[in-house]
């Protein structure tokens, strides 16, 4: 009963706030006669979006594919690096400056370098940009999770005669799962944002980033915002899928940790 009572507040409140914000946006554009190149109205954006669903969908597939590949690469590398850093603490000490440096590298500067290295006619640069953005939160959160196991729990498993792998499977890994998904939830949105930004600086034609710049360059600002809306929906899809996967793997922890 308590959970069902909080459902309207959890779901309806953000929806009502969003509707109110869009209504105020529309009212401000009409009342203040704001020009489209400054800020198009929600009605004009919705009209362009409904009339360009096929092109928004095609661009979303390109950006989504690059974000997904980057998410998988960054997550796998981040998890493996965190495991190695846990098993061999010296690697954590050696890699700490590199991780700190990687976390502050601007995508704006990195994307053109990757295009030069791998070619402007390939999607590789966009995927690597997304992978780098994903790696940092996954690595840091997984590493933190792997270190949550208390010595007393390890000693207890050792007293029961458990092997190192049994202790890891029973104590270390379950404790690390919530932290891993915290990193993945953050990374899922970063993957889309990074792939989108990477499209601004070159690469093949296609993707939401390219479509936004093309529409803005042709002064079709409502269409540019329609592609922005597509990017928002894509980011939400990535986040919701990640959250659903977390609920599937650890339903009790997910319900407690989900925002």
From TrEMBL:
<dbReference type="GO" id="GO:0055085">
    <property type="term" value="P:transmembrane transport"/>
</dbReference>
<dbReference type="InterPro" id="IPR035906">
    <property type="entry name" value="MetI-like_sf"/>
</dbReference>
<keyword id="KW-0472">Membrane</keyword>
<keyword id="KW-0813">Transport</keyword>
<dbReference type="Pfam" id="PF00528">
    <property type="entry name" value="BPD_transp_1"/>
</dbReference>
<feature type="transmembrane region" description="Helical">
    <location>
        <begin position="124"/>
        <end position="140"/>
    </location>
</feature>
<feature type="transmembrane region" description="Helical">
    <location>
        <begin position="179"/>
        <end position="202"/>
    </location>
</feature>
<feature type="domain" description="ABC transmembrane type-1">
    <location>
        <begin position="56"/>
        <end position="242"/>
    </location>
</feature>
<keyword id="KW-1003">Cell membrane</keyword>
<feature type="transmembrane region" description="Helical">
    <location>
        <begin position="98"/>
        <end position="118"/>
    </location>
</feature>
<feature type="transmembrane region" description="Helical">
    <location>
        <begin position="222"/>
        <end position="245"/>
    </location>
</feature>
<dbReference type="GO" id="GO:0005886">
    <property type="term" value="C:plasma membrane"/>
</dbReference>
<protein>
    <submittedName>
        <fullName>NitT/TauT family transport system permease protein</fullName>
    </submittedName>
</protein>
<keyword id="KW-0812">Transmembrane</keyword>
<keyword id="KW-1133">Transmembrane helix</keyword>
<comment type="similarity">
    <text>Belongs to the binding-protein-dependent transport system permease family.</text>
</comment>
<feature type="transmembrane region" description="Helical">
    <location>
        <begin position="67"/>
        <end position="91"/>
    </location>
</feature>
<feature type="transmembrane region" description="Helical">
    <location>
        <begin position="12"/>
        <end position="32"/>
    </location>
</feature>
<dbReference type="InterPro" id="IPR000515">
    <property type="entry name" value="MetI-like"/>
</dbReference>
């Amino acid at each position: 009963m308590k959970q069902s009572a909080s459902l309207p507040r959890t779901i309806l409140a953000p929806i009502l706030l969003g509707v109110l914000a869009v209504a105020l946006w529309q009212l401000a554009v009409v009342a203040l006669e704001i020009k489209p190149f400054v800020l198009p109205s929600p009605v004009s954006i919705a009209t362009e979006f409904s009339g360009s669903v096929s092109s928004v969908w095609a661009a979303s597939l390109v950006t989504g594919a690059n974000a997904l590949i980057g998410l998988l690469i960054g997550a796998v590398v981040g998890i493996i690096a965190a495991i190695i850093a846990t098993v061999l603490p010296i690697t954590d000490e050696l890699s700490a400056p590199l991780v700190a440096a990687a976390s502050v590298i601007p995508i704006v500067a990195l994307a053109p370098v990757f295009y030069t290295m791998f070619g402007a006619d390939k999607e590789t640069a966009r995927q690597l940009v997304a992978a780098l953005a994903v790696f940092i939160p996954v690595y840091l959160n997984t590493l933190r999770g792997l270190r949550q196991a208390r010595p007393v729990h390890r000693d207890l498993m050792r007293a029961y005669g458990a092997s190192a792998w049994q202790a890891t499977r029973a104590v270390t890994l379950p404790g690390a799962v919530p932290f891993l998904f915290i990193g993945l939830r953050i990374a899922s949105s970063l993957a889309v944002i990074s792939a989108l930004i990477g499209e601004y600086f070159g690469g093949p034609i296609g993707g939401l980033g390219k479509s936004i710049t093309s529409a803005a360059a042709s002064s079709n600002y409502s269409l540019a915002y329609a592609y922005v809306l597509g990017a928002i929906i894509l980011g939400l899809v990535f986040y919701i899928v990640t959250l659903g996967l977390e609920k599937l793997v650890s339903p009790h922890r997910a319900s407690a940790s989900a925002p």
